[in-house]
UniProtKB/TrEMBL annotation:
Keywords: Hydrolase, Lipid degradation, Lipid metabolism, Membrane, Transmembrane, Transmembrane helix
Entry similarity comment: Belongs to the PLPL family.
Motif GXSXG location, chain numbering: 161-165
GO biological process, one term: lipid catabolic process
Name of the featured protein: PNPLA domain-containing protein
Entry annotated with the keyword Iron: no
Lineage, uppermost ranks: Eukaryota, Fungi, Fungi incertae sedis, Chytridiomycota, Chytridiomycota incertae sedis
Species this chain originates from: Boothiomyces macroporosus
SUPFAM superfamilies: FabD/lysophospholipase-like
Length: 364
């Protein structure tokens, strides 16, 4: 039923019905501090009713707008049902949003005070990033996630992609909002293709290089998503979105590097995508290209040869936190083997095997 949903609203309606049928009306209380969150919600309401904007701003800065406040980001809260959660959680977010709007509109605070407040809470709360995993052809399921988030105006500006996920991320980060309206049309599937070699080309490539696909052909296929030879800095200036691609150095020590407009501004995105997809036996290790004085030259600052980013950092959480202040990660995970490591399910996808215990508990 969920798979047949045409949009997110329909998915919510179906998910709600499934939770009711499964008797999952409310999540267990012990997964987060219900009392703490409830008390803070009451305080915010009280301060607003008393018009005490300074007490409200202090509460938001020092308590409410902190990462994982009261444990509400515990994945288990959202993993035992499709959409049902403890009612205080949506109330917390609703009241917090109203409180922020209240402070921004309050006439007793000067513009400078409001700016200082917003800057501080922004640092405390951090930024949000969307990470698209690898997963070979299964990674194209990311496209549905991207489409749903874009249509509901909740697509983060910071997007990371690894392996085939980098191809999907580049499609989004190399296009303006106006262009994305066309990209999310079903006809885009005619262009969003990779690994299009015919059978005999695959045999020939494997015989000559030990890999099924050639670097040049894959880079050509990826260039549509990356709009030709666009670089990281060019994409950022065009769209304002921050594209991150995780790639692994090839050699005696495998080290993951997160390519973006700050670390590698002049690197050609299609070249980085091809490197991030260079899985053993599929695409051979190869160099990355950059633009220098209008010419394409090898990028040798961080390594000579590169391979699949999934080998070391499928989700570059630490790098995103260190470089862009990201504290909240939304992961679209397409790797099938991950299933066995989440016995309690994942957010929005409760584990139905063995009453929520999953297969991993059997194996261990």
């Amino acid at each position: 039923m969920l798979k047949n949903s045409q949009d997110y609203k329909e998915w919510i309606d179906v998910a709600t019905e499934l939770d009711i049928l499964a008797g999952k009306g409310e999540i267990e209380r012990h997964y987060f501090d219900v009392e703490l969150v409830t008390n803070v919600v009451k305080k915010m309401k009280r301060f607003m009713s008393k018009n005490d904007v300074y007490a409200l701003s202090s509460l938001l800065q020092n308590s409410v707008l902190k990462k994982d406040f009261g444990g509400i980001e515990n994945p288990l809260i959202y993993s035992n049902s499709y959409i049902a959660v403890h009612p205080i959680i949506p109330e917390y977010f609703r009241v917090t949003g109203f409180a922020l709007d209240y402070i921004c509109r309050h006439q007793d605070l000067s513009l400078q005070e409001k700016q200082r407040f917003l800057k501080k809470v922004s640092v405390n709360f951090g930024k949000t990033a969307l990470c698209l995993s690898g997963g070979a052809f299964l990674a194209f399921f990311h496209f549905g996630v991207l489409k749903a988030m874009y249509e509901n105006d909740c697509l983060p500006d910071i997007i990371s992609g690894t392996s085939v996920g980098s191809f999907l991320a580049s499609i989004i980060c190399c296009r303006t909002n106006e262009e994305l309206e066309q990209v999310f049309h079903p006809s885009v599937s005619e262009n969003a293709k990779t690994l299009t070699n015919d059978f005999f080309d695959k045999i020939k490539n494997f015989y000559n290089t030990g890999a099924v696909y050639s670097v040049e052909r894959y880079r050509q296929d990826a260039s549509w998503g990356c709009k030709g030879d666009m670089t990281f800095i060019e994409a950022y200036r065009l769209t304002g979105r921050v594209l991150n691609i995780s790639i692994t150095t090839y050699g005696s020590t495998f080290k993951s590097i997160c390519f973006n407009y700050l670390n590698t501004p002049d690197v050609i995105i299609s070249s980085a995508v091809t490197a991030s997809c260079a899985c053993p036996l599929i695409i051979p290790p190869h160099s990355i290209l950059m633009k220098k004085e209008g010419k394409k030259v090898p990028f040798l600052d961080l390594g000579k040869l590169w391979v699949d980013g999934s080998l070391t950092a499928d989700i570059p959480e630490e790098e995103l936190h260190r470089t862009f202040g990201v504290k909240s990660i939304i992961v679209s995970q397409a790797n099938p083997h991950i299933f066995f490591f989440y016995p309690k399910g994942t957010p929005g996808s409760p584990n139905k095997h063995r009453n929520g215990h999953g297969w991993y508990s059997v194996l261990t």
